[in-house]
């Protein structure tokens, strides 16, 4: 019996170190990031995703512009109202759920080493982005003209749906009465002896309005394209979760395109730049499909879990999050609800409807974050 107990103790001493080594190997260690991916074939289905996502993105980004300019399409006015505020909710939810969370997951991965692990870089990068954007818009409001003649462009704007229009009648009426424009700028009117019936400050205010909208549009475009590129690369090399990710990203990119398209349609583009919103919409629409095609081309070498990929993904997601946070909270929520003369004079039922639709857009986009 004593010999048997001694043998048991010897075996236990031999097995214990092996168990410890195996347990340590199972845990991710610093500096040992995954150098591969989970690509598991199904190349035909992945190629189909290129075209399905392209169609969905193109519909969301370009159709609102087309429908607003062509009344022959006969899209009901309430559809534009829903698209505008639903899209606003989508943009805000994208910033929080689809950008900040993945960025934090990437930059806090246990395999990363060095300075990237020594600070809350996701929040820091987003914070810096917000201040850079505010400074950019501040300077644009003071100096940028975008080669735009506000008086001539007012006469060149095409007829659009009222919910996407530039509120020309409202602007004309308010141009001769004290008040505020949709950016909260006070209108100071100058009394003069010339009986020309003109408001000499309206052109300046309208130019500021146009400059602010141009800056906001290009900022939004920049943010969603960056995000869409990494979405495409991730989908290209996804493994078992590809089917779920495929379906979710079709809706994700369509809703995000709708958020961008509603902004493009609401902007008072002069006739000389009538193709600009289509160019911006198409650019967004092709960003994910092109990234997906590139990801398939490098599927044997692209490693989304590598140190380089994690850092790039986390940094650019953080930048995009800051862009969409600024755009969503300042341009879409504050300006559209609190500084808009139209909403301030609208019935409470209209304001609450707009708010409810925006919450619906944010809620659905946040729900998609459970899978992608």
Short description:
Helices cover 70% and strands 0% of the residues. With 372 residues, it is mainly alpha-helical. Helix 4 (121-143) runs antiparallel to helix 7 (202-236), helix 7 packs parallel to helix 9 and helix 7 runs antiparallel to helix 10.
Describe this structure in words.
- By secondary structure, the protein is mainly alpha-helical.
- The protein has twelve helices and no strands.
- Mean pLDDT is 78; it is low at 14-28 and 149-204.
Q: Give the integer mean of the pLDDT values.
A: 78
Which structural class do the helices and strands define?
mainly alpha
What is the percent of helical residues? Answer: 55-70%
Distance between the first and last residues' Cα: 60 Å
Written as H for each helix and E for each strand, in order along the chain, the element string is HHHHHHHHHHHH
Per DSSP E runs of 2 or more residues, the count of β-strands stands at 0
In percent, how much strand structure appears in the residues?
A: under 5%
Radius of gyration: 26 Å
Query: How many helices in DSSP terms?
Result: 12
Task: Report the major sheet.
Answer: none
List low-confidence stretches: 14-28, 149-204
Give the overall shape: globular
How would you describe the oligomerization state of the chains in this entry? single chain
């Amino acid at each position: 019996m004593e010999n048997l107990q001694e043998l048991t103790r010897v075996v236990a001493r031999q097995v214990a170190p092996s168990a410890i080594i195996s347990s340590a190997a199972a845990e991710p260690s610093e500096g040992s990031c995954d150098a591969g991916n989970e690509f598991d074939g199904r190349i035909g289905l992945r190629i189909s995703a290129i075209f399905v996502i392209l169609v969905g993105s193109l519909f969301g980004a370009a159709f609102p512009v087309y429908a607003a300019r062509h009344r022959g399409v006969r899209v009901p006015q309430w559809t534009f109202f829903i698209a505008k505020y639903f899209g606003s909710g989508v943009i805000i939810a994208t910033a929080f759920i689809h950008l900040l969370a993945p960025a934090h997951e990437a930059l806090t991965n246990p395999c990363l080493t060095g300075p990237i692990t020594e600070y809350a870089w996701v929040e820091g990068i987003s914070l810096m982005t917000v201040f850079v954007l505010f400074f950019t818009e501040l300077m644009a409001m003071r100096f940028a003209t975008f080669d735009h003649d506000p008086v001539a462009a007012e006469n060149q704007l095409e007829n659009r749906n009222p919910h996407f229009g530039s509120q020309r009648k409202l602007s004309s009426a308010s141009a001769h009465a004290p008040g505020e424009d949709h950016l909260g700028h006070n209108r100071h009117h100058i009394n003069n002896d010339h009986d020309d019936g003109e408001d000499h400050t309206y052109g300046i205010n309208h130019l500021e309005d146009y400059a602010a909208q141009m800056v906001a549009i290009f900022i939004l475009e920049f943010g969603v394209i960056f995000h869409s590129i990494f979405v495409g690369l991730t989908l290209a090399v996804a493994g078992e979760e590809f089917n779920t990710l495929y379906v979710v990203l079709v809706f994700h990119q369509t809703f995000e395109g709708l958020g961008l398209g509603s902004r493009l349609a609401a902007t008072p583009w002069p006739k000389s730049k009538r193709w600009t919103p289509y160019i911006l919409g198409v650019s967004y629409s092709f960003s994910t499909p092109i990234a997906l095609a590139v990801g398939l081309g490098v599927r044997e070498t692209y490693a989304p879990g590598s140190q380089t990929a994690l850092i790039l993904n986390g940094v650019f997601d953080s930048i995009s999050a800051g862009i969409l946070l600024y755009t969503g909270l300042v341009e879409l929520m504050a300006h559209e609800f609190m500084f808009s003369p139209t909403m301030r004079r609208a019935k409470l039922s209209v304001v609450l409807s707009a708010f409810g639709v925006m919450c619906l857009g944010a809620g659905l986009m946040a729900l998609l974050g459970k899978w992608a």
